[in-house]
Task: structure prediction
Amino acid sequence: MSVLICDADGELWYTRQEELKLDYIAMPYSYNNKVYYYDLGKHTDFEEFYNAVRGGEIPKTMALNPDEYVEILEKYYSRGEDVLYVSFSHAMSGTFEHLNTAINRLKDKYPKRKCTVFDTKSICMGAGIQMEYAAELKNAGASDKEILAKLDKFRDRVAVYFVVDDLMHLKRGGRLSGVAAFAGTLLSLKPILTVDEKGSLKVLEKVSGKRKALRKMADKVIADLTGTEFSVYVMDADSPEEGDALAEMIKEKRPEAKIVRQTVGPVIGAHCGPGTIGVIFVADQRPIPLEK
Result:
């Protein structure tokens, strides 16, 4: 018997996580000299976090250490349960090296237990929509093997588009080169970003001005959305008016779309910064970036 778990970097909102009875790993972040663990929005003070960042605070994220992963896994192993962990992109964090260390440390004590990790090769709701799908399959009675087979195909259909207000947030987090960050800020360029097949952030298209970027993202959804089986997630990092505007652009042309509006959590927000707007949905294939 296995237990399906996910992590908070997938951003699946806590009410949906509870509805699906899906366990999750809370991921750490810090600001104002205090460490927090993201609880998928249940008790998160989004206003305080984004006000602090807008005021000059530089938040940080950190990897869980091997001891923390041992504690997480042992909770299941000690009950005789295996673990199927659907995770955010391994290309974006060193935390999975610590997870592997924990798995290896537990082998002698629990030789019959195993932890299978599926890399969604995405982040935010790009990972969350895969976590949601896996939980739906699990609750419908699918085996681990069936879930992994379906996820393997589903992963390459998840389309992620987003635009940030200030590229320097990505630059500080090592997600964007200093030259690109400086040029984008100076020229008011608004690159539309995506996640490639390896799970890394890439530039999809470069446009001038955020309104144009939102229009471009809406057009991508309008053209490529496959149907209503899965929700369209419109995310904003403390910019609800722009998020609502994007949702309306989509709804105007695709009124059948099931749009879910959601706030970007502090872990992801620490890297992308306030004002970020994104959309995640299921298409025939994931976007192909300009750069490899």
Remarks:
- The chain has a mean pLDDT of 92.
- The first strand starts at residue 2 and ends at 7.
- The chain has two domains: 2-155, 156-282.
